[in-house]
Amino acid sequence: MTSQRRQIPKIDYGIILTLMLMMIASLVIIYSAQTTGQYKQNFVFQQVFWYTLGSAVAVFVMQFDSEQLRKISWYLYGIGLFMLIVLFLAPDNIDFTRKVNGAQSWFFIPKVGAIQPSEFMKVFTILVLARIATDHHVKFIHKTTKTDFWLLLKLGFAIAVPVLFILKQPDLGTSLVFLAIFLGMVLVSGITWKLLVPIFSGVTLLGGTVLYIAIEMPQYLKYFGVKPYQFKRIYSWLDPYTYQSNEGFQLVKSLQAIGSGMTSGKGFGNREVYMPESHSDFIFSTLGEEFGFIGGSIVISLFFLLIYQITRVGLDTKNPFYSYICVGVISMITFHVFQNIGMTIGLLPITGIPLPFISYGGSSLLSNMLAIGIIMSIRYHFKKYMFSSND
């Protein structure tokens, strides 16, 4: 019996293939969605540009190894936080930082487009949380409840600072993504369940209480910090047809579009339901109407495949810093997919979160490609050998 050593390729071509399929799906759906007449821009051309730029960013980030990523993590976090502070302090009556749909979340750069700092801050925060967790475990080899609580406080503070500025924009949807990242990384951080069980139970109880009050006693929601426009979103989610002339319009149209697509859809370009923002936040509605359950299932399967591929990278590496990054990216993508598709079919309230790699959007796509570039760098910089035996 002989043993043959085979080195796994440093470039994960499986992830590249999955992204290429997502790009094709994105361009096809956006091409059809932009025919609604709501906007005059060529979103397909712009999406190609952002995919090209995002690919260049991913290739560039691949060159950074673990130690380099650790060193720049706090600098990137500081840059992202600085941009959020600038948005917070900037007046909303100038074109560079004007409000859009009631939120001051973007920098508007001539001939480039809108840049949303909170999208990039998600990836920067993942890097910082990964560094905090790894540095903590190096410093505190012998774990106690006290050291675990100290780690939880550090992780919580790192996530709370950007979230506070994002909530002020206001952008509740993106804030929830940060919460999902935090919860995902806390679960694998090694913190004792003596701390996690009460915390998660409390969060679950609070969420259930808020939902109960929203249904039975909505007038008391103001004590939980819920804004008037958020009241309307909750009402339109619980009973969209009653509010279909205003706040419930998008959800009703989305349900009609997806429902009318049935199993195989109406065919490419054969949409009948007018859907606002059908190229961005509600792109899954366009997909459901034109390609039906089959088309929607294929796109969802691509996300499952991508998450599996990132999980495999995280399990293969023996570097804790890398593993934490993988968990953070998985948490971010999973929540985005769950929330976006859930809001288009009425399972969750509308929050304005895009569908990763599919929805049109420069900042969203660039930040996701940045995250994938980091995942690709993990595969690129760690060595693993497989042993196969032959008789």
From TrEMBL:
The answer on whether this UniProt entry bears the keyword Thylakoid reads no
What is the membrane topology noted in the UniProt record heading this document?
Multi-pass membrane protein
Q: From what superkingdom does this record's organism come?
A: Bacteria
Q: Which UniProt key words apply to this protein?
A: Cell membrane, Cell shape, Cell wall biogenesis/degradation, Glycosyltransferase, Membrane, Peptidoglycan synthesis, Transferase, Transmembrane, Transmembrane helix
* One Pfam family named in its UniProt record: FTSW_RODA_SPOVE
Tell me the compartments it is located in: Membrane
Question: What parts of the sequence cross the membrane?
Answer: 12-31, 43-62, 74-94, 106-129, 149-166, 172-188, 195-215, 291-309, 321-338, 358-378
PANTHER family per the UniProt record, alphabetical? CELL CYCLE PROTEIN, PEPTIDOGLYCAN GLYCOSYLTRANSFERASE MRDB
Protein name stated in the entry: Rod shape-determining protein RodA
Species this protein is from: Bacillus norwichensis
Task: Give the gene that encodes this protein.
Answer: rodA
